[in-house]
Amino acid sequence: MEPRVRALLDATADLFLGSSCPGCGRPGWGACGYCLAALARPTPLRLVGPAPGWPVVAACSYRPPVPALVKAWKDEGGWGLTRPFAEAVSLRVGLAGWCEPMLVVPVPSRSKAVAERGHDHARALARAVARRLGWSHEPLLRVGQSGSDQFDLGRTERWQNMAAAMRAQSGSGRVLLVDDVITTGASLTAATTALTRAGWTVSGAATVASSELRHAQSTPRQTPAG
Ligand SMILES: [Zn+2]
Question: Disulfide check for 35: which of 65, 78, 221, 225 has CB 3.0–4.6 Å away?
Answer without folding.
Answer: 65
